[in-house]
Amino acid sequence: MDLEAEELQFLSIPDILKESISIPKQSPKTFYLITLALIFPLSFAILAHSLFTHPILTQLEDHPSPDPDQTRHEWTLLLVFQFCYLIFLFAFSLLSTAAVVFTVASLYTGKPVSFSSTMAAIPKVFKRLFVTFLWVSLLMLVYNSVFLVLLIILIIAVDTQSTLLVFLCLVLIFVLFLFVHVYITALWHLASVVSVLEPVYGFAAMRKSYELLKGKTRVAAVLVFGYLSICGLIAVAFGSVVVHGGDKYGVFTRIVVGGFLVGVLVIVNLVGLLVQSVFYYVCKSYHHQGIDKTALHEQLGGYLGEYVPLKSSIQMENLDV
């Protein structure tokens, strides 16, 4: 990023996207390897997992086996596969976030960038992101519990034919998804960047993220909603053509469309990670919180076990005495 810290606060949404897209040009080889090693497997897994679960679900729903042992085996296989998928998704999501945020910050501070240095820093960064993710998971647990309660009330309202209650539940569910879910997602993404670039993580990173979002909540909501909408459209298209389109489309068409959609999702995920990194600097600039490039440079170097110089001449004088 060539812009000064004071100028970042004035970036509009198109400017943020433009600035984010231009970042990989500064180190194309590094971002190419990050995309190939981390973001591509993540994007492929997000779309392709339904290819494996769909046949099992179809077997369980449309052609249930009369043998209880066979049914139990199919359910076990489904649950094991889903568990492995979630672990893979969780791991590569955090790894991709750590790699992109670290690389963008290195470029911002003028620190030499390479794929090997990024991968070397990931273990320490991953621990911090993991703790932050656990706190976000607790918040999502509360959110999902409220969402589930509303769904139960909605079902009861439909059974009792209570029009007013049905309307209120639908409005609350709509508000929860459109506003609360989007806000929590924005909070999580920004807290992930904070966990990498500042000496805080977990609940402290979430609180820092909450403070940074003030005044930029609308921008964050538009960015997150746009990202989720694009991902949703890609998933719907993949499901209708590749997963469920066996009767309408040939194998070659499904392979081509599937490969194209995976490629699009890879680009969307890469841009999304770049945007959340740039948006962090935009929020810092908006709140007039100075970005000390020297301190940030040392923070990044600490992940690699590099020597961190003394920050003041007073410390040197004490050593001389």
UniProtKB/TrEMBL annotation:
The keyword Cell membrane does not apply. Keywords: Membrane, Transmembrane, Transmembrane helix. It comes from the Eukaryota. The chain crosses the membrane at residues 31-57, 77-108, 129-158, 164-197, 218-243, 255-283. This is Uncharacterized protein. It comes from Turnera subulata.
